Amino acid sequence: MLFRSTQSNTTRVSYKEAILNGLPPEGGLYVLDSVMDMRQFFLYMDSETTFQELVSAISPVLLQGELNPLTAAVVAGNAFDFEPELQQLDEHYSILNLYNGPTGVFKDFGIAYIAALVEEFAPHDKKTMVLSAARGDTGVSIARAFDKKKNTISVILYPSGTIHGLDEAAFVEHGGNIIPIQIDGTFDDCQRLITEIMKDRDFVGRYNTTTANAINVGRLLPQTFYYLYAFIKVKKRLSGDLRFSVPCGNFGSLIAGLYAWKFGVPVSGFVAAMNANNAFANFFSGKTFTPKQRIATISPALDVCFPSNYERLASFYDEAPLVMRNMVFPQSIDDEATRNAMKEVWMKYNIMLDPHAAVAFAAAKKSAEIKGEEYHTVVLATAHPAKYAALVSETLGETVAIPEKLALLKKECEPTACIPPHIDTLESAIASCF
Ligand SMILES: *Cc1c(COP(=O)(O)O)cnc(C)c1O
Questions:
Q1: Cα–Cα dist 217/256, whole Å
Q2: Residue 202 lies in a domain
Q3: Both 247 and 147 in a single domain?
Q4: Residue 356 CB less than 6 A away from ligand 1
Q5: Is 252 in the pocket of ligand 1 (CB under 6 A)?
Q6: 135 shares a domain with 98
Q7: In this structure, are residues 406 and 159 in contact, taking their beta carbons and an 8 Å threshold?
Q8: Does a structural domain hold residue 335?
Q9: Residue 352 belongs to domain with CATH number
Q10: Per-residue pLDDT tens for 237-295?
């Protein structure tokens, strides 16, 4: 499987190169150059197959020549000590819980897998520095994923503010391989610093630097695994076609779904579930994309005006605009409808949804009103309801139990250094760790 840039058709790189480069040197984002039909590898799997077995079987085929079956199983084992969970509600709806990872958010899937792959792909005779910018609990997800991974040092850049949930025993100064650094600035300043560093070939060479940012294909591709997994779990019970309803912020999860479809999962459509920030609805219906002002909602991860995966999505539409228009159905759900969906699922099925999953559930229902319910929709639950405990509890009038691992995310901690956003100061802060 080869990758190319959205902005250039000339260079092809392997998955390993795409991951370690992070971004293509010629600009744009990495996308799959051609997609394999994977049906023969997953159609025989059934509801007995575990997530680790699925990943161990699929990844060496996807990454032929880069990951042999034995290594693929080791990587899958090192990445995932959690798995998705499918709950069927009725004939027409299932919920795919993607919140069983260490931080209770589906982003744990991509982060856990890229960390295990970097450990496998990086040179074994020197240390590799993995740079990431973090906000919310993403830093914890990254620190957990890279903890004890051999020959890697994970440098996590935080914007100003308090840092939560890291395990200090994993820090470099305590013999671990994690370096949290606070940058005097915003999240964008952290990202700018990473972009600047990645362009500094001397720095990259000196510290063997790579990134684990959200737009790295190393985080995107493993998200296809949970679509395959949902398919093998529901296929026996399917009457009619299969759809997925995906809460969309930067559209990474939707793109992973589209890749899963291209691999051969028999999907008949994706509901692109957005909140009031639905600037993309125009794009899906064939008009040009014009970013709008950001609106604050109760599903904050979807409050995105300019999705970072825009170019990737556009590349699907450039290839086959009509097919795509029959494949992706945008829906926009306001806060009131989001709360109503949370209440409906609680009353009818006794299941708590976080507001993002509720947007997806409401969008699936709204879409079915137009098209009729002749299919089964798998709704992606991207966050644990306890992550939004106050809102869920206020909406449902029920207390929300907080699992201990999620409660620990609230514990405050100190970064290794606080520095202004400059390469030189960053280098002096980390140099002694190499
Ligand atoms: C990040 C996030 C999303 C959006 O995912 P994208 O891949 O960026 O579209 C949805 N729900 C939750 C809870 C998230 O944290």
A1: 10
A2: yes
A3: no
A4: yes
A5: yes
A6: no
A7: no
A8: yes
A9: 3.40.50.1100
A10: 887 899 999 999 999 999 999 999 999 999 999 999 999 999 888 888 888 888 889 99
